[in-house]
Amino acid sequence: MTRRLSWTARPAAIVLLRSYLRLAIGTTRWTFDIHPDAEPLLTGQGDHSVLVAFWHETLALTPALLRRSLTRNPAMRPHVLISRNRDGRLIADIIAPWGAGTIAGSTDRKGKDKGGAAALRQLLALIRSGEPVVITPDGPRGPRRQVEQGTIGLARLSGAPIVPVGGWCAHWRLGGWDRMMLPLPFGRGRIVCGAPITVTRADQDTARATLATALDAAMHAAAPAPARAAQRLWARLATLLAPALTLLLHRRLARGKEIRGRQRERMGLTTQPRPPGKLVWLHAASVGETLSILPVIADLLAQDASLHVLVTTATVTAATLLKQRLADIEGGTRVIHQFIPLDVPRWIGRFLRRWRPNAAALTESELWPNLIESCHRHGIPLALLNARLSDRARAGWGRVPGLAARMLGRFAWIAARSDRDAARFRTLGAERIDTPGDLKNAAGPLPVDPAALAHVRTLLAHRPVWLAAATHEGEEEDIAKAARQIRTRYPTLLTVIVPRHPERGPAIAEGLDKAPRRAAGQEPGPDDAFWICDTLGELGLFYQAVPIVFIGNSLPGPGRRGGHNPLEPARFGATLATGPETENFLDAFTRLGNAVQIVPDADALAKWVETMLADPARRAGAGQQAAAATHADSTLPNRLATRLLALMDAR
């Protein structure tokens, strides 16, 4: 840190450096990204003491983490291992105001006693008493970013886990062996704490490499993301397009895709007040994503009775569904809904300043560069739930690799729904990613109103019937073609169509000889060939009432996007078919195996429905096979809710 200081100059240097660090650390806007398993260790609430490991170059940044830990637990007494030389003593005097003690000692080398043995005894005593210890594994002399064996030996002897820490802030680099960062005032900084590492006798030979890799990963995660120019260009383009996006909102309002009086929410404007206390924000684009996060919302509310949850959606149907389902969730009155602002920096900024969430989570493939960048700038820790990335989306982001890496690097963690999705995210630069499971696999059966079910079953009794569920624009033509073929053999056949977007119901009914619509209170008569069930939130009703189900958004054609979740009808024991476009749910379809029939066109669909109608035993067997494959990990929503609460506390 310094060459030599005379004893007369030393007090002045301590005062100056201490004052400067107080200014720089205190005026830096810090973001903390802390692994959930590390959080209790760093605040003295775990079952063990902890070794907190920094590379030596970030030593001047340690007060930021010390201050945060001591704020959460003032009774803690962390200690920092320093060298016995003058520089070490100078460091001890400088960091004293941050409540940390020091232990002097280095690894003994070439027969020289540097206090290593005595320091080891003191460290072991501190760890056994439950106090955290801060160490620099590359020591006071280097080599730079190479873990010395002493750190690994201390971890093995004490049994204390090591939390690898990386840091970055606006800084100068000093010219020593470690190129130490000296923070600049009034900048931004980031501290990243990785998953704890436990060293045992069995893995002590590889532990040095493991710790070095973890420290480098934390440093990389803390550093500013790449592609700043690409991000700025994206932001400027969105700003230039803002007037056109305003006109688009008016068009969507005229088409019923926005709610009158609430379209200004899409520009970050609202009259709703922010509730006091802690607020976590979850974003789900449409119906499927909203359904998947409902159990997480329920667990968040159950785990923290003072918490409010802000949920944003991009579609009116998702907003309506959310309102329906919140009535069945305890604490649902603490959930606030807003429409997500479009990805314009000024609009997103308004939204974040209004709501000031303590943490945020996006769902599946909702990747909006300006939104993600704005969360980072406002110091809002961000996660990605049930992360999904198709090959097509990966290829698209692959055309702007720097922007993709920057965007994904802003997430504190990414919970991928499958190993396949995790691998795709990693090719784009995602690092803090794991695969806890698929929320859609963990969901329970869709809700069903018993009275409505009894009525529909009575209505459909004594005639052959099949269901085309979650259909998209253009598919109804193929479904109608298949239905007309089937009616040559089954003249009383009824085809029930549940469009994915209920607002399309009138147009579908008009194209099918003015078929009756459930949303209009109409029911099919004996001569009606089609029934358009364009209500919201009743898909479970029809999955249970109709045993033969075709899953839409899967037949080849423009605008098709890779199928829908087959586990929803499978949970009711339905016999299933789908078109070949299933890339959005490959793992679910793989899990169901041959319990799902792939039909490439209308002719194959008609043949399959006829087969199921003609062979009830085969139909029942296929349904039982599908239902048997839908076992769910019911603990997943709770685990993700716990991680989100930890993320909020790590801010």
From TrEMBL:
Active site: E289 (proton acceptor)
Reaction equations catalysed: lipid IVA (E. coli) + CMP-3-deoxy-beta-D-manno-octulosonate = alpha-Kdo-(2->6)-lipid IVA (E. coli) + CMP + H(+)
GO biological process: lipid A biosynthetic process; lipopolysaccharide core region biosynthetic process
Residue ranges constituting the DUF374 domain according to the UniProt record: 74-144
Swiss-Prot/TrEMBL site (Transition state stabilizer) positions: E364, K440
Top-level lineage group: Bacteria
InterPro entries: DUF374, Glycos_transf_N, Glycos_transf_N_sf, Kdotransferase
Pathway noted in the entry: Bacterial outer membrane biogenesis; LPS core biosynthesis
GO cellular component, one term: plasma membrane
Enzyme class: transferase
EC number: 2.4.99.12
GO MF annotation: an example: Kdo transferase activity
Residue ranges occupied by any 3-deoxy-D-manno-octulosonic-acid transferase N-terminal domain in the UniProt entry: 263-441
Keywords for the protein's UniProt record, in alphabetical order: Transferase
Task performed by this protein: Involved in lipopolysaccharide (LPS) biosynthesis. Catalyzes the transfer of 3-deoxy-D-manno-octulosonate (Kdo) residue(s) from CMP-Kdo to lipid IV(A), the tetraacyldisaccharide-1,4'-bisphosphate precursor of lipid A.
Record protein name field: 3-deoxy-D-manno-octulosonic acid transferase
